Amino acid sequence: MLLNEILDIKYPVILAPMFLVTNIEMVKSAIDAGATGALVAHNYRTPDELRKDIQILKKENKRPFGVNITLDFANEMNKENLEVCIEERVDFLITSLGDPGDVIKRCKPKEIKVFCDVVNEKHAAKVAGRGADAIIAVNNRAGGHAGALEKGEIIPLLTQKFEIPIISAGGVVTNQQFKEVMELGAAGVSVGSAFIATKESKVPIEYKDAVIQGSEDDVILTPRISGIPSTVINTAYIKSLGKSMSWMEKRLKKRKKTKRLVQKALNRTGLSKYQHKIVGPDYTKVYSAGPSISDVHEETTVRAVIERIVGVS
Ligand SMILES: Cc1cc2nc3c(=O)[nH]c(=O)nc-3n(C[C@H](O)[C@H](O)[C@H](O)COP(=O)(O)O)c2cc1C
């Protein structure tokens, strides 16, 4: 079953969840254009702020949309955010990094669909066993926490093994790339990097320019941002972070209290230029994006990106 049939929308395209990038305006435009989108729960400071945006989308758009919940330990508001999604009856959740078992158990009775990010067959078997409604196969061209397998490996592997739909994530900007993954058997695509430099996106102009001017050669996988290797544009700031986390950084990162104290002390003593060594990166200077930025050449609208991908423009 194709993604557009599962959700009753026009095009099998999800505007993917992107930390600090995906916003309500982008999701609104994706819905208006006949696709769908997923808000990112951890982009909101409180569960109530997330609730507010869900309510706005429900009221104004009346078309399906989702929310992404990242299930790792770092995300302390997961439980409350999940409650908000269930109470407000979002149409689907996208889970990443962790066991979606509890989320699926809570969502099934409420008819909220759960799509789970996976990077290999083992993860896929786990989420399928838990009752996921679809698998998002994250390939080695994806922005964010990329997988290791090529689209040509992971899509056929998972479509042969599992009955549920396989949505492909990674490396789709053009209609040709979209057609390739659909021909491999994907039920749809989840697209991130192609939307960073859109008019609806509120990231700084420097970030958009880096995406427009950059190519896949400028994108590196680094563990320095979240602790798990993720793709970023290799700017001077990223180079200054070095390639791996220091021993002290790893220890302090685990403890929220120490992290705050250290940050305060650094600010007081004017040592903030060392802050990333101790408390982690300055997110205003981190331009996360995947290698598919090679095919992004201008700032445009969310609708134009979707129409180019599905081949109607
Ligand atoms: C800037 C950026 C931030 C991302 N943040 C998240 C996130 O918060 N949660 C998540 O599940 N995936 C995240 N991803 C992965 C996307 O949801 C999606 O899988 C990926 O962008 C697909 O590859 P593409 O960028 O080549 O389209 C992020 C990707 C990018 C580029």
How would you characterize the overall build of this protein?
The structure is a single chain. The protein has 313 residues and is an alpha/beta fold. The protein has 2 domains: 3-203 and 295-310, TIM Barrel, CATH 3.20.20.70; 218-285, no CATH class. It has helices spanning 3-7, 24-32, 47-61, 78-87, 101-107, 121-130, 151-161, 175-183, 205-213, 236-241, 247-254, 256-268, 275-279, 302-310; strands spanning 13-15, 36-40, 66-70, 92-96, 113-118, 134-138, 166-169, 188-191, 219-222, 230-233. The chain is globular. The model has no long low-confidence stretch (mean pLDDT 90). Bound molecules: flavin mononucleotide. Flavin mononucleotide (FMN) binds next to β3, β4 and β8.
What molecules are bound to this protein?
Answer: flavin mononucleotide
Number of domains: 2
Using the CA coordinates, give the radius of gyration.
19 Å
Task: Detail the poorly predicted runs.
Answer: none
CATH architecture assignment of the largest domain: Alpha-Beta Barrel
How is the main sheet built? 8 strands, parallel, barrel
Q: Count the beta strands.
A: 10
- The structural class is alpha/beta
Calculate the terminal CA-CA distance, rounded to whole Å. 25 Å
Beta-strand fraction estimate? 5-15%
Mean pLDDT: 90
Q: Write down the overall geometry.
A: globular
